[in-house]
């Protein structure tokens, strides 16, 4: 029987990151030559082993926790050393910190014993330079033979990458018959401490991403909240987002967010765009950098091999072909196989404009806006039926090209897979929003074509209404998609939450979608399930058919809050905040969609990225919904629709940004909101009407 090639699990690993470097080890702090453990730099595993021993014995693991925004600290015991008796008197502390070009470790042997302690501290090393896709496939490369030149130094070199480990004052053993080893003898008097250090540095001139200079240019607001879970989640998320910042080597000032550790720490069109959009309440600089980076790589020609088309926005960027072991998926280094990134690029430009992105930054992007709209009009609808679809024509690209891009993500209610070309529901909402927002930008900057795109949006809404609404066990709802034969894929999924606020739905239709999003079938777990429990394809640990994604939940939450469906938004917020506590305030890419009553905490998805950019940025979106701050800088007004109040509690935020100015919002426990430091060019609009309640059924299929 052939053994399966399995993706390695990482839910119990402890990660540190300062992009483009990340490190994953076990809860004892060891980096073992197994699975996905290692130090990674820009799509290559530059260290596959770093095992600590004291007198050739592993310390017994005791505890671990964060050590600053890019570090972790591990505490273990060496109970064979020190005083006899039940109480341990020798502990080992290991602090690991990621940097943009490697990692640093500090190992301390701490004695409270009354007797002297003598020991040898050693670290066994290894390097295989395995590409990330090989690791993700469950494979590994043969360790590279190490060389030792200068004292205290171990070096590996291959494929244009040079990796150097230096141990201060260490003895180096590079006998080919054993793992390279750094060792230090330590001699402690009673109550003494000995500390040794080693560091790893990477020289990787072929990397397609690099660390940006300086500190983040977004605001770090001061938040006080009755629900302290929100504060803890935001603090950890902003630390992680700081660590996920990337740039291209030729344009280091244009910062974007890498998608996630370890699989996707590079430029991802959809992920980087959504994360930047969620971060707009903290400033427009990240949005501007993300827009410019993707504009430089905007499609210019038709190329079926890469999915490129004129005006299309990139999906992902790698140093070489991304080829999974076992055949099948093979993606070129610059891959355009995404149906939604182009519309999301337009939506980010429009939203950044409303938050105050200056005209001098928008105007150079207007030709790219027109090209993106051109793709929407000329290339996004291959069969000419007025709806946006996708199909992989290569046979080795992504079968599904929306955000749910696993091969089994698009399923009928009875579990059957839909055949491509596929027309996704949320993509039609993105297209509508891009057309209307693009038209507003064209008008505002004196460019032609706005009427064409408003007409396009009206026609799209009519076609969507006729083609997508189906009747299901929970009432009428938009189908997940249309298949090759334009049959509605009638499963009930979280995709419909992305339609809120796009303008594609009528008020009555939004009310019905809100009703569906807040029922137990979708919202009975710690957030919003990707597929309802009533669908045959549902599995709580399916990547896209029953699991819960933090960003997906936050998008629906924000849409519900802005549309006035307070009760539903609060329910999703409670789920996310509960999950955040269970995951030490670092929300993973996704987690299980089990009922909250199963364990009282979410079940981990074992291969989820953590940290993940749009999961971390979801914390900012929850804060944004809590304050309800919605600026429209071009039209000189700001609205407040706070979710905070009697149920969520009071929230006070100092340091949000509107039009570059620092703005403070306070919402008291009754829901009364006040706004301070608003620029004089902006006016606060009157209070909004009372919250809406989703009826039992609002529309008929």
Structure description:
25% of the residues lie in helices and 25% in strands. It is of the alpha+beta class. It has a seven-stranded antiparallel sheet, with no helix packed on it. A four-stranded antiparallel sheet has the order 1-2-3-4. The model has no long low-confidence stretch (mean pLDDT 95). It holds the Pfam family MGH1-like_GH. Residues 335-581 form the Mannosylglycerate hydrolase MGH1-like glycoside hydrolase domain.
Give a concise summary.
The protein has 701 residues and is of the alpha+beta class. The protein is 25% helix and 25% strand.
Secondary structure layout plus pairing:
Blueprint: E1 14-18, E2 21-25, E3 38-41, E4 44-47, E5 49-54, E6 60-66, E7 71-77, E8 90-99, E9 102-111, E10 117-126, H1 132-136, E11 153-158, E12 161-167, E13 171-173, E14 181-188, E15 193-203, E16 222-225, H2 228-243, E17 245-248, E18 251-257, H3 269-278, H4 285-296, E19 316-317, E20 322-323, E21 330-331, E22 334-335, H5 341-355, H6 359-362, H7 366-378, E23 423-424, H8 425-444, H9 450-468, E24 469-472, E25 475-478, E26 481-482, E27 488-489, H10 507-517, H11 520-523, E28 548-549, H12 550-563, H13 566-582, E29 590-591, H14 613-627, E30 629-632, E31 637-640, E32 651-658, E33 661-667, E34 673-676, E35 683-684
Parallel strand pairs: 31-35
Antiparallel strand pairs: 1-2, 2-3, 3-4, 5-10, 6-7, 7-8, 8-9, 9-15, 10-14, 11-12, 12-15, 13-14, 16-32, 17-18, 19-22, 20-21, 23-26, 24-25, 26-27, 28-29, 30-31, 32-33, 33-34
